[in-house]
């Protein structure tokens, strides 16, 4: 097929004369004719795509029997950007910038997860300093994600000051991110084979100053919520799921551990030298929204511990590997040195970049704040990936949502949704 | 006693149990070999991997598909591969299984009843590649609109189909929205806004 023929076939569905612009019908798992207690049909309530409680663009349809949810259905894809398709037309280096935009709450974890997957494909090991810096920044990013989620959970339950406190801490964290990476949200900090640049000289002091105030803050957060009747009563018992069911539905991350399954990729299959640090994998037993809230606070304590240990043994040295056929040369070198200029051009120009093994495929999983973030890469020997598949934790965490809220009240749907920490950018990619 | 097996050991066990049904796909470089199977054997082999106590793959991490239209490899032979990422929480080992799906008849048995998590991965593979998973209770499109005519991550789909973005009805200040909102007797929302009759 010529490109012109292909365009004729796929001309975008809104241009198709047969397109009626209809909404898809929700699919509830009950009979539409069934009557509710008062003798009427079930009322269908639409929540989203623009709704303050969805924290993103996704649509939830609730079939109500009075105020009870008889069934629920979800519709996603409003933020579908085709990152996986775009990957087939960009070089391995260029796609780093798109990994930020998936989970924008913790972009560094996505950067590191992707860089590790490509390094596994190419058989590279980054220098020790780069590994330790990646661990520190991942954990800082994880803290930023968890603290925001806990704060937003407070906001949805009416504890607005919790959200303001969380945002204040996150702003301080973003100041560190800005000093290190040059950006607050879309960091794009890793490179294949290392990092974009070394951290500023006062990095350790900045992080220590942040942690000094942050660890007591977690205690304050608990003081405000634990034992608070309104907050606890709204979260306890909502969205309850057993560990076995959670595992069967593909849950990972803090919400799986809140159901009692101690699965953490950092512990089970360590990467980037996580095996060198002494940390626990906290778990809860209840598996409800409250357990997920407490679980995130416990995990932030562990992350703070990891950062402290990693700062202690932060070695000196380069942050990039030596192989100039893979890693981009320093920008100042490019302007002054003909050899670096050639390397730069070779890596940037299509058809010349880093050679990958033909027909190889790699699945690499890391622990992102929401759970297991996997990158599956198929290479065809070119500098452009043949296919990249992202295993987004949010997609699998969200799939079971209709079952979680079945039989609950409408207000519980909000409590459950905010406890799952669904990031719509990652859900739809 | 949990024992972590390497990918090669698991592959040996699988080939001993299902001789002549499993083709190992050797990867260049340091990546391990993965089994490629035909679609008739998907359910027996995956149920075996879950139920065998030494393997006990109780967690399906991901289901996805790859379109091999532009990359010819001897083990693959068909256009699509459906890729299953398995993990065992008990033994802490990972494994990858790939199933061939022909182009003319893209059907494959679903594994939703073995692992519930297969549902959304299968829905996305159905949405993006047009593969029919037989037995999936909820096989709707996941990300694209329900009436969309193409399968975007297939290799013969262009990066940007004509009119993909700019042909959608758009809101233009002062000009109205086209036909997003049906006009009622008292005039459309945008007309009201232009006349200043809205608060």
Number of domains of chain B: 2
CATH architecture of the largest domain in chain B: 2-Layer Sandwich
- The topology string of helices and strands of chain A comes to HEEEHHHHHEEHHHHHHHHEEEHHHH
Q: Radius of gyration of chain B, Cα only, in angstroms?
A: 24 Å
Instruction: Count the beta strands of chain A.
Output: 8
The number of helical elements of chain A comes to 18
Helix content bin of chain B: 10-25%
Portion of residues in helices of chain A? 40-55%
The averaged pLDDT of chain A comes out at: 86
Q: Which residues of chain A form runs of ≥5 with pLDDT under 50?
A: none
Tally of alpha and pi helices of chain B: 4
Cα distance spanning the termini of chain A: 28 Å
Structural class of chain A: alpha+beta
Q: How would the blueprint of this fold be written?
A:
The complex is a heterodimer of chains A (429) and B (199).
Chain A: H1 3-9, E1 43-47, E2 59-65, E3 68-75, H2 83-87, H3 96-100, H4 107-122, H5 128-156, H6 160-181, E4 190-191, E5 194-195, H7 203-225, H8 229-235, H9 243-248, H10 254-257, H11 265-268, H12 289-312, H13 331-336, H14 338-348, E6 358-368, E7 371-380, E8 387-391, H15 393-398, H16 401-405, H17 410-420, H18 424-428
Antiparallel strand pairs in A: 1-2, 2-3, 4-5, 6-7, 7-8
Helix pairs in contact in A: 4-5, 5-6, 5-12, 5-17, 6-7, 7-12, 12-17
Chain B: H1 7-17, E1 22-25, E2 34-37, H2 42-51, E3 59-67, E4 80-88, E5 93-101, E6 107-109, H3 118-129, E7 132-134, H4 189-195
Parallel strand pairs in B: 2-5, 6-7
Antiparallel strand pairs in B: 1-2, 3-4, 4-5
């Amino acid at each position: 097929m010529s490109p012109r023929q292909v365009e004729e076939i796929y001309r975008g569905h809104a241009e198709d004369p047969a397109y009626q612009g209809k909404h898809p019908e929700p699919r509830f798992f009950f009979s539409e004719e069934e009557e509710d207690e008062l003798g009427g049909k079930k009322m269908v309530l639409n929540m989203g795509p623009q709704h303050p409680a969805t924290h993103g663009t996704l649509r939830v349809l609730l079939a109500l029997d009075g105020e009870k949810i008889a069934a629920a259905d979800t519709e996603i894809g409003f933020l579908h950007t085709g990152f996986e398709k775009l990957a087939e037309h960009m070089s391995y280096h260029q796609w780093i910038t798109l990994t930020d935009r998936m989970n924008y709450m913790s972009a560094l974890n996505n950067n590191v997860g992707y860089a590790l997957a490509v390094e596994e494909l190419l058989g590279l090991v980054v220098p020790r300093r780069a590994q330790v810096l990646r661990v520190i920044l991942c954990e800082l990013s994880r803290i930023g994600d968890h603290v925001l989620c806990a704060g937003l959970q407070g906001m949805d339950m009416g504890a607005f000051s919790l959200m303001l406190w969380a945002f204040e801490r996150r702003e301080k964290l973003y100041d560190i991110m800005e000093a290190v990476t040059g950006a607050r949200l879309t960091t794009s900090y890793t490179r294949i084979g290392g990092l974009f640049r070394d951290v500023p000289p006062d990095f350790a002091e900045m992080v220590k100053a942040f942690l000094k105030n942050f660890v007591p803050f977690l205690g304050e957060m608990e003081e405000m919520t634990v034992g608070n009747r309104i907050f606890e009563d709204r979260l306890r018992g909502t969205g309850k799921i057993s560990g076995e069911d959670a595992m069967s539905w593909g849950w990972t991350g803090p919400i799986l551990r809140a159901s009692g399954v101690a699965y953490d990729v950092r512990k089970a299959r360590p990467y980037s030298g996580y095996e060198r640090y002494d940390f626990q994998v906290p778990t809860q037993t209840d598996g409800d929204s409250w357990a997920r809230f407490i679980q995130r606070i416990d995990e932030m304590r562990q992350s703070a511990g990891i950062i402290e240990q990693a700062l202690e043994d932060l070695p000196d040295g380069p942050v990039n590997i030596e192989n100039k056929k893979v890693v981009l040369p320093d920008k100042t070198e490019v302007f002054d040195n003909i050899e670096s200029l050639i390397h730069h051009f070779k890596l940037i120009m299509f058809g010349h970049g880093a050679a990958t093994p033909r027909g190889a495929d790699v699945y690499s999983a890391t622990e992102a704040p929401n759970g297991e973030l996997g990158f599956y890469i198929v290479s065809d020997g070119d500098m452009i990936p043949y296919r990249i598949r992202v295993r987004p934790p949010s997609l699998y965490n969200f799939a079971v949502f209709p079952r979680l809220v079945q039989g609950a009240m409408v207000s519980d749907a909000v409590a459950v949704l905010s406890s799952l920490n669904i990031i719509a950018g990652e859900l739809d990619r | 006693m949990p024992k972590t097996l390497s990918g090669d050991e698991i592959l040996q066990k699988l080939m001993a149990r299902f001789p002549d049904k499993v083709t190992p796909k050797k990867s260049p470089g340091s990546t391990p070999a993965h089994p490629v199977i035909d679609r008739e054997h998907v359910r027996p082999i995956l149920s075996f991997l879950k139920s065998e106590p030494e393997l006990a793959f109780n967690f399906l991490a991901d289901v996805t598909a790859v379109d091999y239209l532009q990359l010819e490899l001897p083990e693959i032979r068909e256009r699509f591969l459906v890729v299953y990422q398995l993990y065992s929480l008990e033994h802490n080992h990972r494994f990858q299984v790939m199933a061939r799906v022909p182009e003319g008849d893209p059907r494959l048995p679903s594994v939703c009843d073995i692992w519930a998590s297969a549902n959304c991965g299968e829905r996305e593979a159905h949405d993006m590649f047009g593969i029919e998973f037989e037995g999936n209770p909820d096989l709707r499109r996941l990300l694209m609109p329900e009436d969309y005519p193409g399968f975007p991550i297939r290799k013969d789909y262009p990066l940007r189909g004509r009119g993909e973005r700019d042909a959608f009805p758009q809101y233009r200040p002062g000009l109205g929205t086209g036909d997003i909102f049906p006009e009622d007797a008292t005039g459309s929302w945008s007309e009201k806004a232009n006349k200043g009759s809205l608060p």
